[in-house]
Amino acid sequence: MSKTLIRGAKVLGGEPQDVLIDGGVVEAVGRDLSAEGAEVVEAGGKVLLPGLVDLHTHLREPGREDSETVLTGTRAAASGGYTNVFAMANTFPVADTAGVVEQVWRLGQESGYCDVQPIGAVTVGLEGAKLAELGAMHESAAGVTVFSDDGKCVHDAVIMRRALEYVKAFGGVVAQHAQEPRLTEGAQMNEGVVSAELGLGGWPAVAEESIIARDVLLAEHVGSRVHICHLSTAGSVEIVRWAKSRGIDVTAEVTPHHLLLTHELVRSYNPVYKVNPPLRTERDVMALREALADGTIDIVATDHAPHPHEDKDCEWAAAAMGMVGLETALSVVQATMVDTGLLDWAGVADRMSSKPAKIGQATGHGRPVSAGEPANLTLVDTEYRGPVDPAGFASRSRNTPYEGRELPGRVTHTWLRGKATLVDGKLT
Amino acid sequence: MQRHLISAADLTRDDAVLILDTAEEMARVADRPIKKLPTLRGRTVVNLFFEDSTRTRISFEAAEKRLSADVINFTAKGSSVSKGESLKDTAQTLEAMGVDAVVIRHSASGAPYRLATSGWIDAAVVNAGDGTHQHPTQALLDAFTMRRRLVGRDAGLGKDLDGRRITLVGDILHSRVARSNVDLLHTLGAQVTLVAPPTLLPVGVETWPCEVSYDLDSTLTKSDAVMLLRVQRERMNAAFFPTEREYSRRYGLDGDRMAKMPDHAIVMHPGPMVRGMEITAEVADSDRCTVVEQVTNGVSIRMAVLYLLLGGNEPAVSHARPTEEK
């Protein structure tokens, strides 16, 4: 494999430096590196980050290839600066056996755009009743370490306890979709002033917070670690903060959309804003940003959830929940965290690459940008400003809440183990 | 007036008074031997009902026919909708047949708003009740009934409901009638009080432009109108209240409670009534109960709304009278 010299890149937002890639590895980082024999990429002051890692992606394959495939999803990931995504288990069939996770893993290998690490279901068919063969999924070629019934909550306290205990045998982690099912029957949006007015079924904050409270206590009791998916309320932040202060081994993620959008948008009844957990209040948004900045929330995860057009071009109650996010995540984080002064680029690298890789035990990802490390890198034009145009998405789906919204930042290059997957904003 | 009628909250005071005044003119038509105006001759209105509601559909149909519109009734049951056709395709199919207005009833909150704002169709959209969101023509006919009874049929023309005390009792949480009435009555200057067990009030109700009480008896003496909302028996199974009997004892209107109301005060109900639950037969059949008048007034209000939305720039009856006198 040939050499590449990235010239004048602000590594993690620092002073401009040159980064030399040789084969799949970063050969050197420094000033005035020799370009001999290397293809030169003029970074011109763009910011260089380790390749992003998404702990929460829905790739939809197998089963819903009309909305996304592993190939289109990994192309979207590369466009957004990602080099590793964790594929959620709620496919058809559900990724609850070694066979299905190996299939997803192999499709990821074949795609060549981004590493795909399958997440295994906690329970058979995501039904919350019977543990799936977690050990078999771990021992498969896919080497599953993260387990989640995402889309559904592991609501039975005994099943959750057993899962937390069981995965300790091989260092796994359960990622909980915190949603008390009885409190959210018929739920359509955040329960509050707006839902009362719009006449849409409420999804109360307490339905999330009560499960998180229970699960951090369970994790403490059995000495396991637990990861909380897409935390969305100020109250959840308080519980996780308290749990961490007690030494409980809990990690938490927030989505880009929960850092930016509020339930006021639902007044349009446009299902592009329909998502689970729902968009919350301005107060929640501010609490989530603060928690991501101070480390209470460990990572940003996209919850990239592609849906075909017809599943959103309808009345609110009939629409599917979810938004695509891989191709806009970094821009939203720049808008909400960097441009607001809450986080610097080193902080972004930590929340969007190093920590998610650590939680998911992704080898070779989320590493420092330094000599000898795998060349998983992403180059960001942070000065760019422009409206989001879904027509340009690599994802098969277009259900973005940001259409036409002006967002900062644009990923121009992505390298997966030294191989460029994105060059000047175009997929290779 | 706007092009669509989606929510009572979209109406200004002047819009609302114009509709009420126009409805009074429409009501006079009903007193004539030939109860018909040529106003919407050659215009087509479709009643697009995705949710069963014989009363509301018949009321709209009567209004449309009295205005000489061509009427198409579409009910979801047995149609292509039950075979999986989307709201968008159904609406576009109907519009392709040349429809000027769509009267829509849908179980999904916001469906009429989507229909009016998504660029799917060009026709005027009238919300005939959507989920637990809005039912603006019901609120208008209720306000019309109140104005007639509390202000006067002729004395009320051009007037609103300034200072009138209106109490709504029952399942506020699931009621589009309550939401529409709170919005419209507030716009018309009335003081609204909602009475319900706390389980049947939405989280966030404290921001609505009204008072909230859990105690019916204390509000009755201070009410010019008491509107009872239907309480579905199924709610009992979802633990909104313990038993029907307990609900009736605490929130039902019987003769004794009605006697506490001021002499001029009226009892209203949007129907269908559950006798013995929120209202006793004695109250339902009394002179103070306006249930049947509300039905009559519903036709006048819907005539006024359709007339004004479909381009009635001139006063309805001066436009209509010469034609009719020919």
From TrEMBL, chain B:
<comment type="pathway">
    <text>Pyrimidine metabolism; UMP biosynthesis via de novo pathway; (S)-dihydroorotate from bicarbonate: step 2/3.</text>
</comment>
<dbReference type="GO" id="GO:0006520">
    <property type="term" value="P:amino acid metabolic process"/>
</dbReference>
<comment type="similarity">
    <text>Belongs to the aspartate/ornithine carbamoyltransferase superfamily. ATCase family.</text>
</comment>
<dbReference type="InterPro" id="IPR036901">
    <property type="entry name" value="Asp/Orn_carbamoylTrfase_sf"/>
</dbReference>
<comment type="subunit">
    <text>Heterododecamer (2C3:3R2) of six catalytic PyrB chains organized as two trimers (C3), and six regulatory PyrI chains organized as three dimers (R2).</text>
</comment>
<feature type="binding site">
    <location>
        <position position="135"/>
    </location>
    <ligand>
        <name>carbamoyl phosphate</name>
    </ligand>
</feature>
<dbReference type="Pfam" id="PF00185">
    <property type="entry name" value="OTCace"/>
</dbReference>
<dbReference type="InterPro" id="IPR002082">
    <property type="entry name" value="Asp_carbamoyltransf"/>
</dbReference>
<dbReference type="Pfam" id="PF02729">
    <property type="entry name" value="OTCace_N"/>
</dbReference>
<feature type="binding site">
    <location>
        <position position="230"/>
    </location>
    <ligand>
        <name>L-aspartate</name>
    </ligand>
</feature>
<dbReference type="InterPro" id="IPR006131">
    <property type="entry name" value="Asp_carbamoyltransf_Asp/Orn-bd"/>
</dbReference>
<feature type="domain" description="Aspartate/ornithine carbamoyltransferase carbamoyl-P binding">
    <location>
        <begin position="3"/>
        <end position="147"/>
    </location>
</feature>
<comment type="function">
    <text>Catalyzes the condensation of carbamoyl phosphate and aspartate to form carbamoyl aspartate and inorganic phosphate, the committed step in the de novo pyrimidine nucleotide biosynthesis pathway.</text>
</comment>
<dbReference type="GO" id="GO:0044205">
    <property type="term" value="P:'de novo' UMP biosynthetic process"/>
</dbReference>
<feature type="binding site">
    <location>
        <position position="56"/>
    </location>
    <ligand>
        <name>carbamoyl phosphate</name>
    </ligand>
</feature>
<dbReference type="GO" id="GO:0006207">
    <property type="term" value="P:'de novo' pyrimidine nucleobase biosynthetic process"/>
</dbReference>
<feature type="binding site">
    <location>
        <position position="272"/>
    </location>
    <ligand>
        <name>carbamoyl phosphate</name>
    </ligand>
</feature>
<feature type="binding site">
    <location>
        <position position="271"/>
    </location>
    <ligand>
        <name>carbamoyl phosphate</name>
    </ligand>
</feature>
<protein>
    <recommendedName>
        <fullName>Aspartate carbamoyltransferase</fullName>
        <ecNumber>2.1.3.2</ecNumber>
    </recommendedName>
</protein>
<keyword id="KW-0665">Pyrimidine biosynthesis</keyword>
<feature type="domain" description="Aspartate/ornithine carbamoyltransferase Asp/Orn-binding">
    <location>
        <begin position="163"/>
        <end position="309"/>
    </location>
</feature>
<feature type="binding site">
    <location>
        <position position="105"/>
    </location>
    <ligand>
        <name>carbamoyl phosphate</name>
    </ligand>
</feature>
<feature type="binding site">
    <location>
        <position position="138"/>
    </location>
    <ligand>
        <name>carbamoyl phosphate</name>
    </ligand>
</feature>
<feature type="binding site">
    <location>
        <position position="83"/>
    </location>
    <ligand>
        <name>L-aspartate</name>
    </ligand>
</feature>
<dbReference type="GO" id="GO:0016597">
    <property type="term" value="F:amino acid binding"/>
</dbReference>
<feature type="binding site">
    <location>
        <position position="176"/>
    </location>
    <ligand>
        <name>L-aspartate</name>
    </ligand>
</feature>
<dbReference type="GO" id="GO:0004070">
    <property type="term" value="F:aspartate carbamoyltransferase activity"/>
</dbReference>
<dbReference type="InterPro" id="IPR006130">
    <property type="entry name" value="Asp/Orn_carbamoylTrfase"/>
</dbReference>
<feature type="binding site">
    <location>
        <position position="55"/>
    </location>
    <ligand>
        <name>carbamoyl phosphate</name>
    </ligand>
</feature>
<keyword id="KW-0808">Transferase</keyword>
<dbReference type="GO" id="GO:0005829">
    <property type="term" value="C:cytosol"/>
</dbReference>
<dbReference type="InterPro" id="IPR006132">
    <property type="entry name" value="Asp/Orn_carbamoyltranf_P-bd"/>
</dbReference>
